[in-house]
Amino acid sequence: MPTLISIQVPDIIVIGGPTASGKSGLALSLAQKTAKKNINCVIINADSQQVYKELRILTARPTEAEEALAPHKLYGFLSALESFSAGKWLRMAKMEIDWALSNAVQPIVVGGTGLYLKALLQGIADIPDIAPEVRVQAVNDFAVMGKAAFADRLREIDPGFFARLAVYDRQRLIRAYEVWLGSGRTLSWWQEQGTTPPYAPEKFKLFQIDIPRDALYKRCDMRFELMLGQGAIEEVQLLQTLGIPQDAPSMKSVGIKEISAYLKHELTLEEATANACQATRNYAKRQLTWFKHQLPRATPVHYDSKTLPL
Fold it and tell me: Which end of the chain has fewer CB within 10 Å, C or N?
C-alpha cells in the first residue's frame, strides 16, 4: 500500500469506501502511525448504522479494544429506538471537527454512508430539529390513517416531495409529514433553499479504498461468517425485545432481516447466511457506484489484504 497521507493539520481527512473494505482499520492504523510522530488524531464516524449502541457486531463497529487505541467519536452513542438524520450527524460531526482543528488535532472522518459524506463536503438543507412530540403525532397519524391515506394527505401538503421520490416507505413519509408539522414548511421547501458547504473544498483530503470487486465480495462473505461467531444472532434477539419497527433506521443494517427470518423458523441458518451475504454484496456494489460518481477527486488507496483487517 502506498503512503496514505502527509499530515498537515488543519486538513480534514476523509476515508471512504464500501462495506468490508477495511476503512475503520485503515483509519486506526493512520491514527497510530501519526501518534508516533507526536500528531494526535480523532476518528469520527460517518456510518449511519454505527451510531447505534446496540449494533456493534452487525455494523462492524470498532471494538472496545480498538476504540482504546485512539479517540473515536459518534460511535454507539444513540439508542436503536431513536431516529437520526444526515442533518443531525453533520451538526455533531462539525462540532467534533471544529474542536479538533482548534486544538491541533487531526480529524479523520471515516465511513461509507454517502449521504453523510455528501453533507460534509457539500452541505445540507438546514431543516430545524423536530420536537419528539411532533414525531409521535406523525407516527400516530400514520397508524390511524394507514399508508395509502397518509400518502394521499401528504401529497396534497407537499407535492414537490412526491415529484422527486421514486420509492417511498413509512420512514420517508413520516419524515416529510413531521417536518411540515414541526416547522410549518414542507420538506421540499427546505430542500429548495440551497446549501452552504461547512468547509472550503481545499480543507479536505479525500481518500477512497480501491479494492477489486471479487476481493471485496469475498471479504463481505467472510465478515458475515465472522459476525455470526461473534454473536450477531444474540444481537438481533436483543433488538427484537426493544419492539423497534421493522422500517426504523436502526433496523436497516444488513443481516437483521435475514437473522430475524431464521429466528422465526422461516429460513435455515444456512439460507439466512447466504441471503445476508448476497445482500451485503449488493450493498457494497451500490456503494462502489456512489463513490465512483460522487467522490471523483478522492485519491485511491490500493487494497492490501495483509494490512486491511476485516
Answer: N
| pTM for the model | 0.85
Q: What is the mean pLDDT of the chain?
A: 90
Residues 6+ apart with CB under 8 A from 256: 58, 236, 239
- Strand pairing category for 12-16 and 106-111: parallel
Q: What is the pLDDT of residues 167-209, one digit of tens each?
A: 677 888 998 999 999 999 999 998 888 788 999 999 999 999 9
What is the set of domains in the chain, with CATH numbers?
Answer: 12-125+196-211+291-302 (3.40.50.300), 132-191 (1.10.20.140), 214-287 (1.10.287.890)
Residue in the block written with cell 510522530:
37
Would you say 126 and 135 are in contact if contact means Cβ atoms under 8 Å apart?
no
Q: For residue range 46-81, what is the model confidence (pLDDT) as tens digits?
A: 999 999 999 999 999 999 999 999 999 999 999 998
φ, ψ at 134 (rounded to 5°): -70, -40
DSSP notation for 5-52:
----TT-EEEEE--TTSSHHHHHHHHHHHHHTTT--EEEEE--SSTTB
10 preceded by a cis bond (ω within 30 of 0): yes
* Torsion on CA atoms 278, 64, 15, 216, rounded to nearest 10: -30
Q: What is the sign of the dihedral through the CA atoms of 262, 284, 119 and 33?
A: positive
pLDDT at residue 8 tops 80:
no
Sign of CA dihedral 127, 129, 132, 133: negative
Distance CA 152, CA 148 (A): 6
What CA–CA distance (Å, rounded) separates 114 from 116? 5
DSSP-assigned letter for residue 165: -
Residues 202-236: tens digit of each pLDDT: 999 999 998 899 999 999 999 999 999 999 999 99
292 close to 244: Cβ distance less than 8 angstroms: no
pLDDT of residue 304: 61
